[in-house]
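Apologies for my clumsy wording, but can you show me some protein sequence, whichever is easiest, together with the matching structure tokens, please?
=====
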Amino acid sequence: MTNCLSLSIAFLCLCVILSADNFVRANENDAESITKIGQGMGHIMNIYYCYSCGYRKVFEDYAGIIHQKYPEISVIGANYDPPGLNMYLSRFISLGKMLLIMCILSGVNIFAWLNKPQPSWWSWCLENKLYACMMMFFLANMIEGQLVSSGAFEISLNNIPLWSKLETGRIPQPPELFQIIDNTLQFSKMDMPNNNYVQ
């Protein structure tokens, strides 16, 4: 029983460390983007996409054609985290899934801790560990995927929104996106002050 508890605590610590590492990496990317803009090293395009919807390949294709047509634009992609409690609920389900799988594999009766009689479905899980763990894993993954599936493909250039799939309902065609990028770059050149005047 203490072995399962120590494994659970170790797993929880690992999850916290990985989450903190992702937060630090995201902050480093933001700092790097701000530094590049401040040094005039080019433009930064951010594309936030729904990873669970399979838009990673679409992002890679768009990043390639944008870099080919506009070499001065750095394209940064990341998963679009859904708003609200969906992301936190998904992480909670993931943690619960792992804890239940560890309890099933170690044969721990969690209902004994709660001073409740062991239900028949838990007895079945302990007798059929492989099937129970696989069923729990795939069912929880399906629920997690539905919670974090946003359908997003959000594009911004220098923090100026260019396209939102959440608003339009579709991903832009490449010529359409090129026209929007050209207009935005031309508009940003007109807005930049001219520092070549004589003082």
User: Anything to note?
Assistant: The radius of gyration is 24 Å. The chain has two domains: 41-81+150-191, 83-148.
